[in-house]
């Protein structure tokens, strides 16, 4: 009995809404399952709130599927809901089998949803029936008996408890926790912040079983909340912890137990002295749209971004015209006006730009949570005991970058699990705890986001990697390489196909692909490792791709743009300051040796040459902690630019990221800083 | 024009309920709230002739909302419809016990909701 919409177009819009909301529900369920699994491995006890949320998700999905006549999906959601309902009401325990079954059902829900878009979801009905059969078989297992505990509570409060809340109340009483009622009043138009503070403080020491709102006593503008709380600490301590004037705490009495601390109070309607004033209802403005968030197609944001990009380029043209007008005496006054307008325009444009950029930012949480699911699955399928620690899931990046990051980060974590982690016996023999740890950490540093994946596994033996790389002809035998450079070889293509290396060294599978992916995002990836102690892979990524400020430099008769966020500083270099060592050119930068590259030679432009006597500039490029100096002839100023991808013969030239328009209509090539820095470290082809 | 408050955490369900109610013979104004808290915030700002609410919601549940409305003299006379996914009989009995006027099970038949809404709205009009 599906709701029939009147017109097809409306139906299909509703349908799209359904799919999009169902996907959100699905994502929430995956998160919940992943949390549950973590809780089981960590404390062995599942958080009732997580189970209840999972239940609510299955419940919503069931209701939605029913409205859209998706019977298979509805049935599946119904059975999921049923299992979760038993678990949350304490009628069934959550074991590994149940978790596996839930995982599988959620995967099947995902698959079905994919098919809904093409209307072919019925192809999966057999599988759905099979999974439902197994859920039913599991659900028939005996239910632990529950005995009802008695408690004296305000009847108004009891009446509004759902079955689940009643169960939580009973469960907490059975566990010997003290049931208390916390009451506080707030301004009715702005209660949420205060209430959130109150519930937050209570949750630190107990469980909030129910939140019952009631009218403020004698004051229309107030709203009163009674929180039913289960905790181990006495009411006095709880009240002291809340630090909220006006909040009161009292203990609900147990039947036949401790004496009642207080009479049931003014929560009952008959007791409250409410003075109704119907005419006090404020203005009836439009309240139709109250929800604070909207979902937007990422393509619309891309379009907006492109528009902003074009405006940025046009602003450049405006600035140039203003400058030219200023040079002429007869237009100087107009030029000053234009300049003022231009400055205002520039400021607003910057606001618009950062506004659009901010809209595209999403936290890394999604990626991290996917990873914890993967690690959980790996842990289940192997003998290894590995804990995944996640830090900085709230770090934000452009949505596009986050999406592109999933694969490389997944690869790195899988590598750590598969190859770096030893079996528990081997770990114990090496004097390490049996449980290994992979830690994924993200943080923002200036315009970059740094993501590190560190493990406490067996580490990489540089000698093995080196000899293997020589064997494979990746490096020549007599080239002296520092350990750091040897380690970098794990990112070289060609080392990957060699399985012995991965088994003995712990790494190597597809790391060249990882580097290619990260580099394509304008990022940098490096590895550090200590034999026997573990490996750390560090990825440094720009926060956003779209609009960048660029430094325009000149070599011979060419101009290039360098993304300003990777420029650390610029230096004037006299020819005799350039030192040479082992075939490489270096510059003494405040005591550190800065590897140098000559931009003209990179692209065969001639121009500067080490024998020439003129001054040059070194643009110090930095990605993460790595620095490389780029020698150029001229610094020509800063400019906002939008990088456009280029096609044709030059799109595959290493070191070029794309092209950009300058305000005067000319086009210049944008340097790929990540590639230049990497080549610079390796000594590059110019060595 | 009569005014209806729809409290439901699922956006799709909310707009389905809204669309169903907009199809009544009489013109109505629909206000949506995505949670119980939002409903508490919205209630004092409008004068509603009918409230339609879900039970399972993230902050306060539909029963707690019904209890609040019925205890508050400013709102106690507003008729209330609970729409919840078929489930616990006890939740239904509690809802009606707290003073809700009707209980509908999801997936609901749009005609049923319209019928109930029409009846309850005309009752309000008769009172005025």
Please provide the count of β strands of chain A: 22
Given this structure, which CATH class of chain B is correct? Alpha Beta
List unreliable stretches of 5+ residues of chain A: 1-11, 255-291, 497-509
Helix content of chain B: 40-55%
Terminal-residue CA separation of chain A? 75 Å
In oligomeric terms, what are we looking at? heterodimer
Q: Biggest interface: chains and residue counts?
A: A-B, 55 and 55 residues
Task: Describe the SSE topology.
The complex is a heterodimer of chains A (687) and B (128).
Chain A: H1 8-42, H2 48-67, H3 71-88, H4 96-116, H5 125-139, H6 155-159, H7 163-174, E1 178-187, H8 192-203, E2 206-215, E3 222-231, H9 235-242, E4 248-251, H10 298-327, H11 332-359, E5 361-363, H12 365-381, E6 386-391, E7 396-398, H13 399-420, H14 424-429, E8 436-445, E9 448-455, H15 462-471, H16 483-488, H17 499-505, H18 511-520, E10 524-530, E11 534-542, E12 547-555, E13 558-563, E14 567-573, E15 578-581, E16 584-589, E17 592-598, H19 599-602, E18 616-623, E19 626-632, E20 634-642, E21 656-661, E22 667-671, H20 673-682
Parallel strand pairs in A: 6-8, 13-22, 17-19
Antiparallel strand pairs in A: 1-3, 1-4, 2-3, 5-7, 8-9, 9-11, 10-11, 12-13, 12-20, 14-18, 15-16, 16-17, 18-19, 21-22
Helix pairs in contact in A: 1-2, 1-4, 1-12, 2-3, 3-4, 3-5, 4-5, 10-11, 12-13, 13-18
Chain B: E1 2-7, H1 11-22, E2 28-33, H2 36-42, E3 50-53, H3 62-71, E4 80-85, H4 89-98, E5 102-106, H5 110-127
Parallel strand pairs in B: 1-2, 1-3, 3-4, 4-5
Helix pairs in contact in B: 3-4
